[in-house]
């Protein structure tokens, strides 16, 4: 089995993954999931033997990269794919000039996952599309 994670312009594949995970599985509204930031973001796509199985979106704001829309198909969860996807996102951020930190809004059930990757939670819990989240940061 071959896993490849790379930047992509295939927004159709990324949105299809996000639709399955966020809209169909988690009940996020399409209005909350689809926004105009896809056009200015760097997208990562994970392919397992050529099949799209995960994605993440990176937005640059000054010296910070915000990682969002991180998702992995259900049949791939627990395989290490999510961690590999996040490591690729952090490496992509490290490659951008002037970037010193990576931020994300983590669903609270996933805090431990991100903490194992070096992220630290800060601030209060907040609601995003009906799902509890916390902000997290990783200083590069």
Quaternary assembly: single chain
What's the CATH H-level homologous superfamily? Gcn5-related N-acetyltransferase (GNAT)
CATH architecture: 3-Layer(aba) Sandwich
Number of domains: 1
Instruction: List how many beta strands DSSP finds.
Output: 7
Radius of gyration: 14 Å
Low-confidence blocks of residues: none
* Overall CATH class: Alpha Beta
Number of helices: 4
> Helical percent range?
25-40%
The main sheet comes to: 7 strands, mixed
Assign an overall shape.
Answer: globular
Q: What is the strand content?
A: 35-45%
Structural class of the helix and strand makeup? alpha+beta
Describe the structure.
- This protein has a single domain, classed as 3-Layer(aba) Sandwich (Aminopeptidase), CATH 3.40.630.30.
- It has helices at residues 11-25, 30-33, 81-94, 111-116, and strands at 3-8, 42-48, 51-61, 64-72, 101-107, 120-128, 131-139.
- It has four helices and seven strands; from the N terminus they run βααβββαβαββ.
- A seven-stranded mixed beta sheet has the order 1-2-3-4-5-7-6, sandwiched between helices.
- With 140 residues, the chain is an alpha+beta fold.
- The chain starts with a strand and ends with a strand.
- Helices cover 28% and strands 41% of the residues.
């Amino acid at each position: 089995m071959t896993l490849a994670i790379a930047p992509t312009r295939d927004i159709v594949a990324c949105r299809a993954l996000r639709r399955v995970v966020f809209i169909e599985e988690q009940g996020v509204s399409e209005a909350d999931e689809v926004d105009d930031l896809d056009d200015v973001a760097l997208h990562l796509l994970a392919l397992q033997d050529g099949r799209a199985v995960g994605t993440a979106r990176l937005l640059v704001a000054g010296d910070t990269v915000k990682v969002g829309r991180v998702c992995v198909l259900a049949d791939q969860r627990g395989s290490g794919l999510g961690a590999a996807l996040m490591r690729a996102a952090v490496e992509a951020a490290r490659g951008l000039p002037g970037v010193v930190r990576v931020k994300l809004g983590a669903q609270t059930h996933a805090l431990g996952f991100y903490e194992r990757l070096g992220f630290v939670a800060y601030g209060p819990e907040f609601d995003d599309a009906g799902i509890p989240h916390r902000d997290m940061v990783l200083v590069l």
